[in-house]
Amino acid sequence: MDQNNKNEEDYGYQLFPERNTQTFKKGSFAKNLFTYNHKCQVMLKFTLDTSPYAKLLLSAMKRSGCTVNKDRHFSCEDCDGTVSGGFDATTSQIVLCQNNIHQQSHMNRVVTHELIHAFDHCRAHVDWFNNFKHLACSEIRAANLSGDCSFSNEIVRLNLGIKQHHQKCVRDRALRSILAVRKVSREDAEKTVDEVFDSCFNDHAPFGRIPHSRRDAEHAYRDFQNRDRYYANL
Ligand SMILES: [Zn+2]
């Protein structure tokens, strides 16, 4: 038991208090929970139906033999602090923090970010717990390809800059994600991120390019479908 609890802490599960408890509270809190949960489900469905980022990732995973099921692989839950989501590799589930996601655009981004982790998990058999480089690489890819650092998001953060800035944003966000889920020193995290940065930053699968906007993602999705059709004709 102790050992388990300790591991859970190390892997950041303390941020997702509902992960291991089945407790439900009564009264208005439960009502709020239901409302939040319902809203989260509706926004999730909208993302899966309409986001070209999500549709491309789901298609690519399906092709690799990892079919994603909305009810089985997504879970809307309350989370601690300001985390928006997470990928639980032990259950292959994406956690969406219903108490911290209030806008559709935010839901789109979180789902895309976590689907990139799921895609990496499906494609590369990532060793999330023992190989720190794997985690760092997936966080770099998620920050780079999900739109976390896209232009409009950066304007919102009043952080306008040149192209180099995109790389800096990706590095910062990857670091922040790692430090949120692992008990490592900032120094160690920086060292690992820098070691794998170039190869992971340049790995754009399954998009084929960095999707800086919804239009980019739509083009990438269309290309992916065409590629599929081409292979089907062979
Ligand atoms: Zn992440």
UniProtKB/TrEMBL annotation:
GO terms for cellular component: mitochondrion. Keywords: Hydrolase, Metal-binding, Metalloprotease, Protease. The keyword Transport does not apply. It comes from the Eukaryota. Transmembrane segments: none annotated. One of its GO terms (biological process) is mitochondrial proton-transporting ATP synthase complex assembly. Its EC number is 3.4.24.-. GO terms for molecular function: metal ion binding; metalloendopeptidase activity. PANTHER family: MITOCHONDRIAL INNER MEMBRANE PROTEASE, MITOCHONDRIAL INNER MEMBRANE PROTEASE ATP23 HOMOLOG. Belongs to the peptidase M76 family. This is Mitochondrial inner membrane protease ATP23. It comes from Lepisosteus oculatus (Spotted gar).
